[in-house]
Model the fold of this input.
Amino acid sequence: MKRSILFILSTFLVCTSYAQNGTSQIGARPAGMAYTYATISDKWAMFNNPGGLGGLNETSVMASFENKFGIDGFNSVGAAFLTSWSLGSIGASAYRFGDDLYNEQTISLAYGNKFGIAGLGVKVNYLQYTVKEFGSKGVITIDFGGTAEITEYIRFGAYIRNIGQAKVAELNDERVPTLLNAGLAFLPSKKLTLAIEAEKDIDNEALFRAGLEYKFLEKFAVRTGIKTQKFTNYFGLGFISQKLNIDYALTYDQVLGLSHQAALSYTFKKK
Done:
């Protein structure tokens, strides 16, 4: 019995720290590529690099659901709306992880624009932590990022989450993690994207990601990727049409097992 309690407690602590750190990272297309998304300009940039919003010219809605390791308490759901106009792109999103015992909720507003070969974006987040019997704590965080088309085939992207190092609690100076991401993508054709990315928590060692997406038969895509520092494999499939996209991602952690994610996005119009 004692071992069972210790196992449940340790699993809770590991999964919470593994999955959730105030980043609201979600999206089955990004997940299929190991979240190597610093360089990519599409609607899922709303949950990743806000600089990627600058290159958009559409009005879209999207939603994604993930279950980690088959545990009900580790479900995540995110939804967003974005639109583009003459002065750039604006978006709003909502995200939730957890259950009644422990959960994180984030509401975000983002803006991005493109200036020549570069895209710049900023996102303001209201992040709320809730622990049953202990109440809730809310903080405001700010993310900033950019992308650049170095050549016809090479893209660069970088962003920082929680640039102001928002504080959660006075005890032990507890703060929302500040993460820096930077990456390169190689696009030798319209069908193939190869991406590498480094991620650095200012309080921990850097980790590295690599991702690949290959489009085939015009409307389908296959994806894969890896992450170091707790080695993780990622796989994904996608259906791509002019308006509707359907994506699925499978994540394999060698210790904790499988996670599944599904996402839908719909584009109403393009400029």
